[in-house]
Amino acid sequence: MEKMKTGVVVSDKMDKTRVVEVGWTTRSPLYGKVVKRSSKFYAHDEKNETHVGDKVKIVQTRPISNKKRWKIYKKAS
Question: Which residue intervals of 1-77 are DSSP H helices?
Fold first, then answer.
């Protein structure tokens, strides 16, 4: 089964590449408080269809370039 994540496009300045920020929560090991964290993923967008602010689903794929390991699956609603 392929890994899939949902996030928001934060950069569309590169050709056919988008930077997608995925947010998640975890508990602090010391205090037990819930803390927000985020990770950025480089995702392939063949037709340059998405833009900054779009909510998208990304799926893991073969390495496309040095940092790109994800591709945009579809726009999330």
Answer: none
For residue 13, give both structure tokens: 């300045």
Distance CA 24, CA 31 (A): 18
The reported pLDDT for the residue numbered 75 is: 87
What domains, with CATH codes, occur in the chain? 4-75 (2.40.50.140)
pLDDT of residue 1: 62
According to DSSP, the β-strands at 34-44 and 55-60 are: unpaired
Gap between the Cα atoms of 20 and 58, Å rounded: 8
Q: What is the pTM of this model?
A: 0.89
20 is written with which tokens?
Answer: 């997608």
